[in-house]
Amino acid sequence: MFIHIKKRPACFPNRLALVVTLLLFYTGIMAAAPTPPQDSLQRQMTVVKVIMEKYSEPGSTAVIFSESARFYKVLQTNPRYKEYVSLLKEAQKKHKPVIVRFTAIGSDTIETVSRPASQ
């Protein structure tokens, strides 16, 4: 009884080398990618929804942006709270972006809200 061993085609090493090269190339591209925008204090974002205090945490107004799946908040202790909430509501109504500055990197607390320079 003989066992027949099927030989691989001659191009197998070439295919393997191509796959390894592509994986190394992809890893190099991912390592050189710029840092994502959520790592900065200030970003331009589009308002999806402004949720008033009775539906969010006490002492704050929650905000949802289309660029993120997180809830952000403007604290009522902020001296310009009413101005910022009105800017956010206006941006929501007109579907316009706003420039938002956070209290710290990765924070969900909004420090300032302003219109982009082009508006």
Secondary-structure map with pairings?
Elements (H helix, E strand, L loop, with lengths): L11 H20 L10 E10 L8 E6 L5 E5 L5 H14 L2 E6 L7 E5 L5
Antiparallel strand pairs: 1-2, 1-4, 2-3, 4-5
Compact summary:
It is built from two helices and five strands.
How does this model look, in words?
- This protein has a domain at about 35-115: OB fold (Dihydrolipoamide Acetyltransferase, E2P) (Beta Barrel), CATH 2.40.50.340.
- Strand 4 and strand 5 (about 110-115) form a beta hairpin.
- The model has no long low-confidence stretch (mean pLDDT about 80).
- The longest helix has 20 residues, at about 10-30.
- The radius of gyration is 25 Å and the shape is elongated.
- It has a 5-stranded antiparallel β-sheet with strand order 3-2-1-4-5.
- By secondary structure, the protein is of the alpha+beta class.
- The relative contact order is 0.15.
- The protein has helices at about 10-30, 80-95, and strands spanning about 40-50, 60-65, 70-75, 95-100, 110-115.
- The protein contains 2 helices and 5 strands; from the N terminus they run αβββαββ.
Helix content range: 25-40%
The computed structural class is alpha+beta
Low-confidence stretches: none
What series of H and E elements makes up the topology? HEEEHEE
Give the biggest sheet.
Answer: 5 strands, antiparallel
Cα gyration radius (Å):
25 Å
Strand order of the largest sheet: 3-2-1-4-5
State the end-to-end distance. Answer: 84 Å
Helical region count? 2
CATH topology of the domain at 37-114: OB fold (Dihydrolipoamide Acetyltransferase, E2P)
